[in-house]
Amino acid sequence: MSERKPYKTDLSDEQWALVEPVIAAWKAAHRSVSGHQGRYEMREIVNALLYQGRTGCQWDLLPHDLPPRGAVMYYFTKWRDDGTDRTIHDLLRWQVREKARRKADPSLVVLDTQSVHAAAGVPAESTGCDAAKKVPGRKRGLAVDVLGLVIAVVVLAASVHDNTVGIALLDKVAADTDTVQKALVD
């Protein structure tokens, strides 16, 4: 593979050193029946996922010097479904927190919700209308640490009350970490 110019979203060597063992273990546990090892470097797959996640580009519009949509989406769906993406996210979050001289897991989270319009193809049973904001669609709730790093996310119908979203977020935070002692809400 020829050397390409790096994107701002590419993993640093230090980040790759954290992530690579997780991916190598995943690959070892998910061997191809045919013995095929894959055509693309796993670091480039992760770089493509980070690029798509940061830019929000459509899968078909990934730059041509990154692995193709099909290969990237394959790993995205597999890792999303089995939690590998969460493991990688947590490793990178812990690294950022430690570089900021903070403990790996937070003791405080900030909760907030936002109602967003749903796309045309989203099933009606998973959407609603936020009566206060007059927004038809979904409501996303985020729990972040003081650095703004994501700790938990929930997505519900926009018609769901903010208290319900907050409870779901706190339940998720409690399930994922036992260090959080305080939550701030607007």
UniProtKB/TrEMBL annotation:
It comes from the Bacteria. GO terms for molecular function: DNA binding; transposase activity. Residues 105-176 form the Transposase IS4-like domain. Signal peptide: none annotated. Keywords: Membrane, Transmembrane, Transmembrane helix. Residues 11-89 form the Insertion element IS402-like domain. One of its GO terms (biological process) is DNA transposition. InterPro entries: IS402-like_dom, Transposase_11. It holds the Pfam family DUF4096. The chain crosses the membrane at residues 142-160. PANTHER family: PHP DOMAIN PROTEIN (PTHR30007), TRANSPOSASE (PTHR30007:SF0). This is DDE transposase. It comes from Streptomyces olivochromogenes.
